[in-house]
Write a structure and sequence with these properties.
Elements: H1 18-37, H2 51-55, H3 61-76, H4 88-128, E1 135-136, E2 139-146, E3 157-164, E4 167-175, H5 183-199, H6 203-222, E5 232-239, E6 245-251, E7 257-260, E8 263-266, E9 288-291, E10 297-301, H7 303-306, H8 318-325, H9 332-344, E11 352-359
Helix pairs in contact: 3-4, 5-6, 8-9
């Protein structure tokens, strides 16, 4: 599962709802029938003059012009017994109709420009953080991403899964800050990770490369800002080819959860310092090796999940809730998101990333070719 293009906050525009397109026509019929059924000294037909501006929000210039012409005819023809507009009244209605047509034309042009800009923005963000395949080498994947900033696809969290000569490697990280301001750092870390998957034989070397990348970027920011803050927490996982184990390196990140049958436990990996602070030096984070059994699943996440609060201020108990949601027929990752959204009253206010990895002994192997 991936970031849910059809949910609110997606970048694609959408046409007006069906009721909005029918509303002007229905209002026209209702006003005419009401006028015909009321005494002659009560005139409600003049409310028809407000329909062209309403139509401008649902129709283009041509459709709005049709409504304006119909309104003008209904008000100007005494045989229809809708109203008895004359002279300046008809001129006013005609002017309102012309302005409505102009508004509809401008709105359509702005809508087209907005959709074009949003399409380009989505393509750019998708290039930074493309969808994770359901299978990478011998590892099955399920992922979900929700950016905190409305209308964006990428924020300050990131994840990726790649196959390389040293096995399948995955990263989940949380960059300081969120929203579009963190996208540049996300792109830099993902680029460094994808290079390291191919070049670095040791998982700690991958962490060191990410730390160097972020430290260099922080130094560049320091030349422009008096008090720069550029760092990230991250967890790296490696599934070596031919071995039933996973290697984990944590850089100040929340612990990975191991789902083994009905039990859920945190993977006890000694955390190193976050990336980009320049604290690691020659001492790299230790590697934790964990033997895996058939059916084991690993769930990595960012603190946007565990720091979400309910109305009473309680944090979301992910480890406890996973035990309940593990057998959801829709899948664990979407089940966690639905449960989290319900718990927090509509969704967290921070970026959220979930990545579940499950070794598949019947998968295509490493599936890497140089």
């Amino acid at each position: 599962m991936r970031r849910g293009r059809q949910e609110p906050g997606g970048l694609h525009g959408s046409p007006p709802p069906r009721w909005a397109r029918f509303a002007p026509a229905v209002a026209m019929v209702v006003l005419c029938v009401t006028q015909w059924l009321t005494p002659g000294d009560v005139e409600v037909g003049y409310f028809l003059a407000g329909l062209p501006p309403v139509a401008a929000f649902s129709y283009g210039a041509t459709g709005t012009a049709v409504f304006a012409a119909l309104v003008l005819a209904l008000l100007g023809l005494p045989q229809l017994n809708v109203a008895h507009a004359r002279g300046t009244d008809l001129a006013t209605v005609a002017l309102v109709g012309v302005l409505s047509v102009v508004i509809a034309w401008v709105r359509r042009r702005r809508d087209a420009q907005l959709i074009s800009v949003r399409t380009v923005a989505e393509a750019a963000q998708m290039a930074v953080l493309p969808p994770v395949p359901e299978q990478v080498g011998q590892v099955r994947c399920a992922a979900l991403y929700r950016a905190a900033q409305t209308g964006t696809l990428v924020g300050g969290d990131l994840f990726d899964v790649r196959a390389g000569p040293y096995g399948v490697r995955a990263v989940v990280a949380d960059v300081q800050g969120h929203g579009l301001t963190a996208v540049g750092t996300v792109a830099a870390l993902l680029g460094a990770f994808r290079e390291a998957v191919l070049d670095d034989a040791e998982l700690v070397a991958v962490a060191a490369r990410l730390d160097r990348r972020l430290t260099a970027d922080a130094q560049a920011v320091a030349d422009c800002a008096p008090h720069p803050e550029l760092f990230a927490t991250a967890v790296l996982l490696e599934f070596p080819p031919g071995l039933d184990l996973v290697r984990v390196v944590s850089c100040g990140h929340p612990p990975v959860l191991l789902l083994r049958g009905p039990s859920v436990a945190e993977v006890a990996a000694e955390p190193g310092p976050p990336l980009g602070l320049g604290l690691a030096g020659p001492v790299l984070p230790p590697v934790r090796e964990l033997p895996l059994r058939p059916g084991d699943r690993l769930l990595a996440y960012t603190d946007g999940v565990t720091e979400a609060r309910d109305a009473a201020g309680h944090f979301y108990p992910l480890a406890i809730r996973v035990r309940v949601l593990a057998n959801d027929p829709a899948g664990l990752v979407p089940a966690v998101w639905r449960d989290l959204a319900t718990f927090s009253g509509g969704g967290p206010r921070d970026d959220v990333a979930l990545l579940m990895l499950s070794p598949d002994p019947h998968g295509p192997g490493n599936a890497y070719s140089a």
